[in-house]
Structure to design on (311 residues):
């Protein structure tokens, strides 16, 4: 393997690992701080880092006036609505359950693309969606196949899924004009503006009066530096050399990484049924990316996935 290929694969794997760890860092951060406090500090630190990197590389683009509302709408869906769903959902369900639900985003994206852009849905996308629904069911149901996970937690995580899909729809209108660093910088900055009044009304007093929690604050720093900044830089590097579909294949491993990390770090239980469910979800995700031959030709037709959300 050439050095360039090795770095591309390592970048994709590193991004998946950092995004997997974000589900663990959220749980640790909650030991000392509320969900909105965790998110707003994470976004603020990441906004400074990404903007600094973009300025250093002379890659920060100024939005055109007509596109400002698109940046605002994009940031409203993600990070604002997405992180409200994901962060509050993690209070009620395990990191593994949350990761498995969030991992279904690329499977719902073709449905949204069909509805809004009339893009055809490939049959393997539909099969992947069916597989993943089955896998999610096994993860959130108990051994007697009764609903064991918190309905509120599951509902909040699916709210994050819906928010991420609408984010991807708005993002499509911006990616052709603006580079990744610019988009990430502006969405994090606007996200902080969205979260600020919520934080001031709900959690600022608790943040001021509660004692400093070193381990929880360190987890927030890790979220900002590794999950919100370096992981995106790594993933962008991977896409540049491997393409979107091959890079997304590594990201499909997030539920597996989260399950393993939760078992060893958070001491979450992991039964055979949950393991089978995770395997089925990942199988569905891979199935949605399989290439098939076009009729009447020997060429392979890629099955596109609009977006893949990470923690």
């Amino acid at each position: 393997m050439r050095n360039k290929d090795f770095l591309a694969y390592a970048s994709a794997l590193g991004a998946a690992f950092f995004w997997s760890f974000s589900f663990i860092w959220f749980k640790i951060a909650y030991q000392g701080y509320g969900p909105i406090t965790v998110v707003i500090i994470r976004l603020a630190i990441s906004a400074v880092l990404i903007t600094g990197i973009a300025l250093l590389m002379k890659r920060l683009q100024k939005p055109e006036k007509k596109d400002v509302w698109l940046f605002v709408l994009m940031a409203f869906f993600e990070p604002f609505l997405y992180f409200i769903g994901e962060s509050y959902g993690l209070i009620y369900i395990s990191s593994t359950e949350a990761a498995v639900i969030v991992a279904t985003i690329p499977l719902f994206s073709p449905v949204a693309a069909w509805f809004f852009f009339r893009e055809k849905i490939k049959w393997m996308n539909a099969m992947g969606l069916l597989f993943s629904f089955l896998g999610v069911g096994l993860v959130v149901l108990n051994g007697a196949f009764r609903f064991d996970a918190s309905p509120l937690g599951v509902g909040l995580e699916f709210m994050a899924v819906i928010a991420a899909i609408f984010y991807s729809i708005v993002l499509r209108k911006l990616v052709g004009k603006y580079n990744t660093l610019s988009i990430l910088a502006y969405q994090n900055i606007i996200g902080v503006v969205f979260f600020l009044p919520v934080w001031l009304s709900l959690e600022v007093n608790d943040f001021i009066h509660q004692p400093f929690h070193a381990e929880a604050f360190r987890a927030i720093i890790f979220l900002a530096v590794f999950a919100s900044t370096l992981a995106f830089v790594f993933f962008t590097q991977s896409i540049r050399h491997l393409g979107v579909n091959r890079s997304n294949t590594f990201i499909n491993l997030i539920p597996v990484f989260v399950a393993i990390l939760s078992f060893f770090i958070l001491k979450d239980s992991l039964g055979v049924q949950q393991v089978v469910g995770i395997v089925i979800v990942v199988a569905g995700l891979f199935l949605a990316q399989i290439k098939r031959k076009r009729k009447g030709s020997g060429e392979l037709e890629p099955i596109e996935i609009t977006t893949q959300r990470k923690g």
Observations:
- The chain is about 75% helix and 0% strand.
- The radius of gyration is 19 Å.
